[in-house]
């Protein structure tokens, strides 16, 4: 693989099929990516532009240019972005709490996406913001951004594989009955409430694995790894089993402590295969200051 191209060489007779089928079935590229690249003339065989009905031959060399001119209606804003990993395809940032990840009607500016657009323009990179993972405004931690269409497609596809892991740290009320286990409860969004979710048999399958890391008199520090990625999944699951997250105004206890002003939830670890090389990338971030202060307070009680 080169920096701006995907390169495939046909080595087997069974791959002598239409190039469209080869790219989709063998290389696992999305139909959308293939159509767009073909329409824009970014697919070559042996240095020549071809049609998608072209029948491949042994020793053919396919090149797909992944660079394309793109724009996004997001206003660039200069801001401090904590970049913890970056290459030509992927970027991982450590988002602070209180920041919305993408502009909305109520938050048109000051979002992570505004800052990323500015960051890309300053570096002279023709990238748009492609979020592979998202976090609630008041959840801190690691977020993956794809820097091109291929990387976004590959990472989104691979999120369903065991090599892709997203783990969180939460400080919860009370003590869980077991130090390690799995919460497998369906999550549903009632029609009358577009924000809050509930555990309900009508909902989608939702699986959260947990492990207690530290135990205090009035709470515990818990590691949570998602097998599925439903909206508010960790918050809903923990609240439902009687151990809501400290500071969670939506699913938690109203008479909460004064040591944290948001849900004590941090996306602290990512593990994923690189979209081009397949190499496993593992990244961790430390407990943010406000959660560390809360933990110290609970340790002292």
TrEMBL record:
Q: Does the keyword Repeat apply?
A: no
What are the alphabetically sorted keywords of the record? Isomerase, RNA-binding
Mind listing the GO molecular function terms for this protein? catalytic activity, acting on RNA; pseudouridine synthase activity; RNA binding
Q: What is the top EC class of this enzyme, as a single word?
A: isomerase
The GO biological-process annotations, alphabetized, read as: enzyme-directed rRNA pseudouridine synthesis
Q: Which residues form the Pseudouridine synthase RsuA/RluA-like domain?
A: 89-240
EC number assigned by the record: 5.4.99.-
Question: Which sites are catalytic?
Answer: 136
Mind telling me which Pfam families this protein's record contains?
PseudoU_synth_2
Reactions mediated catalytically: a uridine in RNA = a pseudouridine in RNA
Q: Identify the NCBIfam families for this entry.
A: rluA_subfam (TIGR00005)
Family, as annotated: Belongs to the pseudouridine synthase RluA family.
What does this gene product do? Responsible for synthesis of pseudouridine from uracil.
The molecule here is called: Pseudouridine synthase
What is the organism of origin for this protein? Clostridium acetireducens DSM 10703
């Amino acid at each position: 693989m080169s920096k701006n191209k995907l390169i495939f060489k046909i080595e087997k007779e069974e791959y002598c099929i239409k190039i469209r089928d080869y790219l989709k079935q063998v290389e696992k590229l999305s139909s959308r990516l293939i159509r767009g690249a073909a329409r824009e003339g970014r697919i070559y065989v042996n240095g020549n532009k071809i049609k998608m009905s072209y029948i491949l031959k042994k020793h053919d060399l396919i090149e797909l240019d992944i660079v394309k001119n793109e724009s996004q209606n997001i206003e660039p804003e200069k801001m401090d972005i904590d970049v913890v990993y970056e290459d030509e395809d992927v970027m991982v940032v450590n988002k602070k709490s209180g920041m919305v990840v993408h502009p909305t009607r109520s938050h048109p500016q000051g979002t992570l996406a505004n800052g990323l657009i500015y960051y890309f323009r300053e570096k002279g990179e023709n990238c748009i913001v492609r979020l592979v993972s998202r976090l609630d405004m008041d959840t801190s931690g690691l977020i993956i951004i794809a820097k091109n269409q291929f990387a976004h497609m590959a990472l989104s596809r691979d999120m369903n594989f065991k090599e892709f892991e997203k783990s969180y740290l939460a400080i919860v009320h009370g003590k869980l009955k077991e130090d390690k286990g799995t919460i497998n409860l369906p999550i549903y969004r009632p029609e009358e409430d577009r924000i809050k979710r509930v555990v309900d048999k009508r909902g989608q399958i939702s699986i959260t694995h947990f492990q207690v890391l530290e135990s205090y008199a009035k709470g515990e520090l818990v590691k949570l790894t998602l097998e599925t990625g439903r909206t508010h999944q960790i918050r809903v699951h923990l609240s439902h089993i009687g151990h809501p997250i400290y500071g969670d105004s939506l699913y938690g206890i109203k008479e909460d402590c004064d040591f944290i002003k948001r849900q004590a939830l941090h996306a602290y670890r990512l593990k994923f295969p690189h979209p081009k090389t397949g190499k496993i990338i593992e990244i961790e971030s430390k407990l943010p200051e406000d959660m560390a202060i809360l933990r110290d307070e609970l340790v002292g009680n």
